[in-house]
């Protein structure tokens, strides 16, 4: 066997090992994607609530994720990643149960809204535990030099699931019933739980732990950059269906799919750029592309421009998470990687938690279309931050 063949075999086995655990992230985010193109319309049109409430119902999921993400990392370090993944899939299953009850009670708008909110809270916790646990599980299976590979595959699982989940949710809603997306969420959780339960756990010896605030002090700047870059994803995932409705454009769910296709394509093709050029440089270029995509959506005069813009946002955002995540995890020892991931992810959750309601308040003042222009400007601030971080890193060389 020549060197190249051996390397390919090694890469194949390594990727297979990682995918065998990040598949649980896929299950969790498929559950996240299913209601994205349905729930805003259910709340605003069938339950007759405002765009602010619709955005709030989407964003309340990220409140739960924010509150549980640091604890998910700590529990993964202490109890093992497998147990945390099982907890996450259990929460996703409860989300399906509450969503089924919410649909059943839609003739009572207030009760239905409360049940949807409870379902979103469970889904947020499930996303947090399943994703953090799966990522750490993958890291524990490979050498530390492969951290970016694990984070990249976890992201592929995340956004390919959302790309498939949004149109699948619409299909189920149109061809079966409003219950279908909720029942599918429950079914996915059961299947994922059984698969995860049958896999052996991998533990990392814990010698020393550092305080949560000390972890936060080491990774916060990378988390802040992530939060700025998350705005683009937030306004697309929460309001793109309402934006398309306002412009009388069909197939809004496909905008979510185009975003995710751009995300997955760049992650698969250019993921190796992170160890080659470094996380800061890669994220700088990524933020530039994301900002261009948001500004293109803002200036769209026809649906094709909006799709191209969504693709660019996905392509730009694709390498932001792993590139900054690699830099964040570098700041701590191996036994604290779960905690570092939890803190780092919390910045994403903070951004997503506030994007929905704040954007819902802005829309009546500036209009739906201008929301994407504002998001583009915010992403430009991320470009500026990464420029100065890169400049500072070069001075230290």
Automatic annotation (TrEMBL):
An example Gene Ontology molecular-function term: transmembrane transporter activity
One GO CC annotation: plasma membrane
A UniProt-annotated Pfam family: MFS_1
Localisation: Cell inner membrane
Domain of life: Bacteria
Residues annotated as domain Major facilitator superfamily (MFS) profile: 184-397
Keywords: Cell inner membrane, Cell membrane, Membrane, Transmembrane, Transmembrane helix, Transport
UniProt keyword Nucleotide-binding, yes or no: no
Alphabetical list of InterPro entries matching this protein: MFS, MFS_dom, MFS_Exporter, MFS_trans_sf, MFS_YhhS-like
Protein's membrane topology: Multi-pass membrane protein
Transmembrane segments: 21-43, 49-68, 84-104, 110-130, 151-172, 178-198, 219-240, 252-270, 282-299, 305-329, 341-365, 371-389
Keyword NADP: no
Family statement drawn from the similarity comment of this UniProt entry: Belongs to the major facilitator superfamily. YhhS family.
Identification of the protein by name: Uncharacterized MFS-type transporter P256_01969
């Amino acid at each position: 066997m020549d060197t190249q063949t051996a390397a390919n075999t090694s890469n194949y086995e390594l990727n297979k090992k990682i995918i065998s655990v990040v598949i649980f992230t896929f299950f969790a985010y498929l559950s996240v994607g299913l209601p994205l193109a349905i729930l805003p319309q259910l709340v605003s049109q069938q339950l007759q609530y405002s765009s602010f409430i619709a955005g709030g119902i989407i964003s309340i999921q990220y409140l739960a994720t924010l509150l549980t993400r640091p604890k998910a990392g700590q529990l993964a370090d202490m109890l093992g990643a497998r147990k945390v993944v099982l907890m996450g899939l259990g929460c996703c299953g409860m989300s399906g149960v509450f969503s089924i009850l919410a649909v059943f009670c839609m003739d009572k708008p207030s009760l239905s809204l409360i049940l949807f909110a409870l379902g979103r809270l469970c889904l947020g916790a499930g996303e947090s535990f399943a994703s953090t646990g799966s990522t750490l599980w993958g890291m524990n299976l490979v050498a530390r030099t492969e951290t970016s590979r694990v984070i990249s595959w976890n992201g592929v699982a995340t956004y390919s699931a959302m790309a498939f989940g949004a149109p699948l949710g619409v299909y189920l809603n149109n061809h079966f019933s409003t219950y279908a997306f909720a029942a599918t969420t429950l079914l996915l959780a059961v299947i994922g739980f059984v698969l995860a339960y049958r896999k052996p756990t991998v533990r990392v010896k814990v010698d020393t732990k550092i305080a949560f605030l000390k972890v936060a002090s080491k990774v916060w700047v990378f988390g802040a950059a992530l939060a700025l870059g998350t705005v683009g994803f937030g306004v697309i995932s929460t309001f793109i269906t309402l934006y398309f409705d306002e412009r009388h454009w069909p197939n809004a769910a496909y905008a979510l799919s185009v975003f995710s296709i751009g995300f997955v394509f760049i992650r698969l093709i250019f993921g190796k750029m992170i160890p080659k050029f470094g996380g800061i440089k890669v994220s700088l270029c990524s933020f530039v592309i994301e900002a261009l995509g948001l500004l293109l959506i803002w200036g769209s005069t026809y649906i094709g421009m909006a799709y191209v813009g969504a693709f660019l946002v996905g392509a730009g955002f694709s390498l932001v998470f792993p590139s900054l995540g690699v830099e964040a995890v570098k700041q701590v020892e191996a036994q604290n990687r779960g905690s570092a991931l939890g803190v780092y992810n919390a910045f994403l959750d903070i951004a997503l938690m506030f994007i929905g309601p704040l954007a819902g308040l802005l829309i009546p003042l500036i209009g739906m279309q201008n929301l994407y222009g504002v998001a583009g400007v915010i992403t430009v601030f991320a470009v500026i931050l990464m420029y100065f971080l890169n400049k500072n890193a070069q001075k230290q060389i």
